[in-house]
Design goal:
heterodimer, A: mainly alpha, 2 domains, 0% strand, B: 180 residues, mainly alpha, Rna Polymerase Sigma Factor, Chain: A
Chain lengths: 138, 180
Amino acid sequence: MEELKNIAPTLAKRSKKVHFDVPEDYFELLPHQIQERCASKQNAKKHFFRFNKSTVSIFAGIGMLMVFYFTVPSQDQKIQNASMEEISLYISQNMEEEFDEELLLDAISSEKLNSTSKLEDYLIENEIDEDILTEELL
Amino acid sequence: MAEYSDNELIEMLHSDNSSYGFNLLVRKYQKRIYNQVRRMVVDHDDANDVVQNIFIKVWQNIDKFQANSELYTWIYRICVNESLTFLKRKKTKFFLPIVDIEKELSGKLDGGSFTGDEIELKLQKALLKLPEKQRIVFNLRYYDEMPYEEMSKVLVTSVGALKASYHHAAKKIEEILLHH
């Protein structure tokens, strides 16, 4: 090569023959191996999309249910989040008989309400017997 | 088997005969691509993996191939990228600094799969001392005799920079061959 004769004369004289050992029939088999891999990648893609459609639908459904469960307030949460005024109004509107504290306390302990603090506050504020309340809640 | 021109291959690849066209494309380029890769990664099994990945990428992206560039320029570009990616992953995988990679590849040359004489072995080891991109420039110019204008499209580098890179590489290797 003219280009190398001046800058690298030793290199310019070298043969450019390939000196790496290659397995026999490697180049005969390579095109076939590559085409097989291309075909299997193509099939894998198809299966992935086919599988994925039904899987995505299922997971989307589960995801929506989970979102609904965690975002839409439950009846219990509505009660827990209710203000004292709302609780008071509810009781006065829905209790036909005279309000029985013990009945209420039984209800609290049997239903195992997670948060009774607002209810307790209500009972205390309305001068309901603290001793009964304490005994039942401890 | 008659060799088809790149334009004929492109036409076949975009037709119902694409599989046959791809087979012909692989047969046309496999040796050149393999030798380029083998000089970079040395080990045959590694070269085989990289070569297969190159042609699979060609197959997967043939629809995106723009006829405004030459087919072989495009294939060589994929070849360069895949070779560099392979070497980069090798370094990252084993947390090896650059010098160790050179030692590892040099060791593989001593492993028995290289059939050249002592000077040829010295030349291949000298090549491994070059920075990877400079090694690619040298391989494309020295072994494949690729014109600088074509190399410029493959490596997206100016002709001037490529000439400078090649001349520096040649001088370094000459120095190693003469004095080491």
